[in-house]
């Protein structure tokens, strides 16, 4: 039986569409309309090439099977706007937190938990804010929320949340660990039962012990900059981030410094690679490369960091409506999204506002295909690249 080609999910969360295309040829194999996926909660890899995401307009958790005959495998009502999405290592129990949405102040304290195997769901109230979430496995899975101002890690037994009565009751945590107030970025290492949080001090970590959390030593950034994004490397036991330095003023974003940060969990060693000035945020993990996009008024580029620490830089065509000097890199501008699969050598990069996706062979550094979709890909859209059994589900946090 031939191996299925990798597939790319391309979401325009403003336009309300999702395309599924094969890579690298770009054949459209599926499409959803009227689906406004949460770009912030992102895509969550499940086993067998399946993907979970949240429709922010309809208030539904979607389980998609881009390799199956029916794209939408399941739709489950959840509270929105979705902030973060995570599952336990088995991919059975999911949690969805709520955030600001289009509001300027935190207002929602709703948390939704879903047991896919039992076809059960519950909504509870926790704490107003923009909480991150991880779901630690074990005989009695734990939902761990990361709060800010005041910073804390709080733990809830998944079974207790699922058994909550109707009416969205307030459910206090059974465990709390203090954190700095500026936590932003979450990861979990399923094999060791560790949860990690990016803060200005470094990466705080805690380990599950029975039904409690035990704080462990902070992993330093080893740089005056800090990471705002944290990701588990499923190819080897490591954490990745991009460290942003320089003046915090968003109007000075072209001057921001950026470094790729990799921390080897087996050896405890940290590796830093300079990426250049401008806006660098999320990253993607291909088979032998880690991919970053860098946006700058002098020119954008895709950066491929090889397993041997070699760096290859590929210029990207300019975006109409790209961030400019004198403005912020967030408001009313176009951006880029990047995706890769740990089971393939392809990297996908969007060109926000143009409806284009560049498909690049990370091994050669050459663009192989340029997809043109019938959607602008506002704000860069959001993308996920999957091979059927690529091991991406080893990272149980939405990206």
Offer a concise description of the structure:
The chain is an all-beta fold and about 400 residues long. The chain contains one helix and 33 strands.
End-to-end Cα distance: 31 Å
Indicate how many domains the architecture comprises: 1
* Broad CATH class: Mainly Beta
Principal-axis shape: globular
Total beta strand runs: 33
Give me the secondary-structure topology.
Elements: E1 7-12, E2 17-22, E3 28-33, E4 44-45, E5 51-55, E6 60-64, E7 72-77, E8 82-87, E9 93-98, E10 110-115, E11 120-125, E12 132-136, E13 142-147, E14 152-157, H1 158-162, E15 175-178, E16 186-189, E17 194-198, E18 203-209, E19 212-219, E20 226-227, E21 231-233, E22 238-245, E23 257-264, E24 270-274, E25 283-285, E26 289-294, E27 300-306, E28 311-316, E29 338-340, E30 346-351, E31 356-361, E32 366-372, E33 382-386
Antiparallel strand pairs: 1-2, 1-33, 2-3, 4-5, 5-6, 6-7, 8-9, 9-10, 10-11, 12-13, 13-14, 14-15, 16-17, 17-18, 18-19, 20-22, 21-22, 22-23, 23-24, 25-26, 26-27, 27-28, 29-30, 30-31, 31-32
What attributes does this structure have?
mainly beta; Methylamine Dehydrogenase, Chain H; five-stranded antiparallel beta sheet; four-stranded antiparallel beta sheet; 1% helix; globular; Quino_amine_DH_bsu; LigA protein; WD40/YVTN_repeat-like_dom_sf
How would you describe this structure to a colleague?
With 399 residues, the protein is an all-beta fold. It has one domain (7-394): YVTN repeat-like/Quinoprotein amine dehydrogenase (Methylamine Dehydrogenase, Chain H, 7 Propeller). It is 1% helix and 45% strand. It has one helix spanning 158-162, and strands at 7-12, 17-22, 28-33, 44-45, 51-55, 60-64, 72-77, 82-87, 93-98, 110-115, 120-125, 132-136, 142-147, 152-157, 175-178, 186-189, 194-198, 203-209, 212-219, 226-227, 231-233, 238-245, 257-264, 270-274, 283-285, 289-294, 300-306, 311-316, 338-340, 346-351, 356-361, 366-372, 382-386. Strands 20, 21, 22, 23 and 24 form a 5-stranded antiparallel β-sheet that branches. A 4-stranded antiparallel β-sheet has the order 3-2-1-33, with no helix packed on it. The protein has a 4-stranded antiparallel β-sheet with strand order 4-5-6-7, with no helix packed on it. A hairpin with a 4-residue loop joins β16 (186-189) and β17 (194-198). The two termini are 31 Å apart. The model has no long low-confidence stretch (mean pLDDT 97).
């Amino acid at each position: 039986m031939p191996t299925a080609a990798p597939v790319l999910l391309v979401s325009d969360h403003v336009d309300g569409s999702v395309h599924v295309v094969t890579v690298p040829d770009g054949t459209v194999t599926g499409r959803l309309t009227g689906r406004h996926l949460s770009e912030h909660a992102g895509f969550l890899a499940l086993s067998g090439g399946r993907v979970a995401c949240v429709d922010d307009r309809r208030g539904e958790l979607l389980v998609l099977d881009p390799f199956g005959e029916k794209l939408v495998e399941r739709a489950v009502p959840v509270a929105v706007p979705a902030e973060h999405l995570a599952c336990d290592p088995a991919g059975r129990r999911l949690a969805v937190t709520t955030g600001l949405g289009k509001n300027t102040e935190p207002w929602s304290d709703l948390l939704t938990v879903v047991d896919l195997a039992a076809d059960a769901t519950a909504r509870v109230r926790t704490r107003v804010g923009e909480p991150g979430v991880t779901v630690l496995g074990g005989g009695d899975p734990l939902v761990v929320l990361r709060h800010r101002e005041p910073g804390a890690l709080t733990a809830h037994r998944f079974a207790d949340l699922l058994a909550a009565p109707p009416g969205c009751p307030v459910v206090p945590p059974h465990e709390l660990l203090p954190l700095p107030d500026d936590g932003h970025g979450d990861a979990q290492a399923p094999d060791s039962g560790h949860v990690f949080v990016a803060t200005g001090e470094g990466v705080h970590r805690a380990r599950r012990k029975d039904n409690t959390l035990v704080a462990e030593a902070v992993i330093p950034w080893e740089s005056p900059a800090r990471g705002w994004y944290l990701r588990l490397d499923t190819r080897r036991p490591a954490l990745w981030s991009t460290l942003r330095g320089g003046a915090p003023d968003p109007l000075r974003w072209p001057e921001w410094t950026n470094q790729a940060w990799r921390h080897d969990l087996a050896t405890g060693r940290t590796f830093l690679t300079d990426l250049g000035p401008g806006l660098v945020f999320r990253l993607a993990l291909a088979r032998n490369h880690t991919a970053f996009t860098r946006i700058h008024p002098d020119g954008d580029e895709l950066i491929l960091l090889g397993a041997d620490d070699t760096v290859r830089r590929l210029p990207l065509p300019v975006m109409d409506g790209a961030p400019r000097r004198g403005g912020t890199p967030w408001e009313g501008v176009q951006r880029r999204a990047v995706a890769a699969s740990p089971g393939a050598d392809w990297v996908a990069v969007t060109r926000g506002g143009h409806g284009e996706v560049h498909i690049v062979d990370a091994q050669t550094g050459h663009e192989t295909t340029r997809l043109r979709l019938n959607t602008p890909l506002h704000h860069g859209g959001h993308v996920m690249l999957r091979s059927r059994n690529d091991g991406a589900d080893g990272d149980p946090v939405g990206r």
